[in-house]
């Protein structure tokens, strides 16, 4: 059964790829017949041509070019209407996954409801005890009504997580969850689990967490939805100065929001939903926290604004604080993933990890053949884990996030599970610089999933231009504009650079070696029937 589904999925992918070929190759050809020679001419000798799918079981696609020459694609006519809607209506974005087996879903509804009930009753108990204690010591704590809602959007998000993605773009619960995070009453605020474990300390040999720089909170909403709140630290138009190391750079709330939108536009769906919110730090944090440590870091600034700084054992510098104006503060709200107690995840060091010190270099930075070593190592020696790392590096290059020290996967899905793209707050720091080293997994391994490449090609075309679809997508956020124009335009420039890296690899190694079939593990199996697959 499991194998049949995998085969169906493979066929679905191939059908979509075939549709894309039709779209890119046949239609342009027909057009060129209609309009006479020259209009779609892609006959320059150095044209990059989209590779044929290799392998025994895959249909022979056209071996003619389907990638526009990178330097003339921007001059084609632009069509009217919503580019984003058109992008999402494209066959490449409508690969329908076959029905999921229980093993392919992260959670069972019954298990999740039991967890939710336990959580709700624990919360009510704590609230009662805490309110009594707070009244006795004259502390202001707002009491809000909590609602147990078995139809809550966050539950639907959790139930939708499966071995292929965190959510489906068509799932109406995701849009509703974004709205919940934007305006639902906050009933509780606390430090996040990892902050609690850290207890404000920092390891001074590693500068990953310079005391006071990390500032994030877990906010609980009226229906028990939980979000990770990262407050605004930097204005949208401020660029990270040249001399600032990436690991002491600010965390940017707008980068978290933008990364969610970009991940969805790339059709990865590996970033949890993130929405921007104006948070009242007095009413929605200070007055709803039951944590004395958190309350203790609040103060009122000389300008009469409510501020708070990160937990810190040694020095609590007010320069590190964030302040409301006088109470309202922008921030990102990232939907929480299911608790580790019901959906364990593991955190794995990125093979292309950077040194978090001022001087040391990692092996990948000095050894151009580093990827050959990685390819020998489990779990990068089989399946598509390495291809997933390469997807992640493309994503990080586009946002210019150098802080991908670890990645997480759900243990339930094992080695074939997708990689979670958590923590994107260090992206979008400099729009004028493209950090090519972030692409090292792609440039050193010279491999890319065909489905990823096809989508990148689409986003390089004027009718789906990445900056345009991003601008449109981000306009839906309450805190729009999320990215300044230079950051949006940098996306187009970086996309071209990704394509050029792929072109170079293809010239060096040939298409069949570089552009890899997705779901490589299953290619030796004969094909299943296509009739159950719907591709719009
Ligand atoms: N949406 C989420 N739901 C649940 N847990 C999350 C979510 N996002 C992040 N986490 C967990 O919290 C940890 C810290 O989050 P994040 O990396 O965003 O913050 P950080 O302050 O940059 O921490 P670090 O320095 O460890 O990277 C993550 O490693 C992850 O395990
Ligand atoms: Mn981080």
From TrEMBL:
Active site: 403
Subcellular location: Golgi apparatus
MF GO annotations: ATP binding; metal ion binding; protein serine/threonine kinase activator activity
InterPro entries: FAM20, FAM20_C
Predominant subcellular localization, coarse grouping: Golgi
Listed cofactors: Mn(2+)
The organism's place on the tree of life at top rank: Eukaryota
Example GO BP: enamel mineralization
Any one GO CC term of the record: Golgi apparatus
Keyword Secreted attributed: no
Annotated binding of ATP, by residue: 230, 334-337, 408, 423
Keywords: ATP-binding, Disulfide bond, Glycoprotein, Golgi apparatus, Manganese, Metal-binding, Nucleotide-binding
Binding positions for Mn(2+) per the UniProt entry: 423
Organism listed in the record: Mola mola
UniProt-recorded name of the protein: FAM20 C-terminal domain-containing protein
Organism taxonomic ancestry: Eukaryota, Metazoa, Chordata, Craniata, Vertebrata
The family this protein is said to belong to: Belongs to the FAM20 family.
Domain FAM20 C-terminal span(s) in chain numbering: 298-515
One Pfam short name: Fam20C
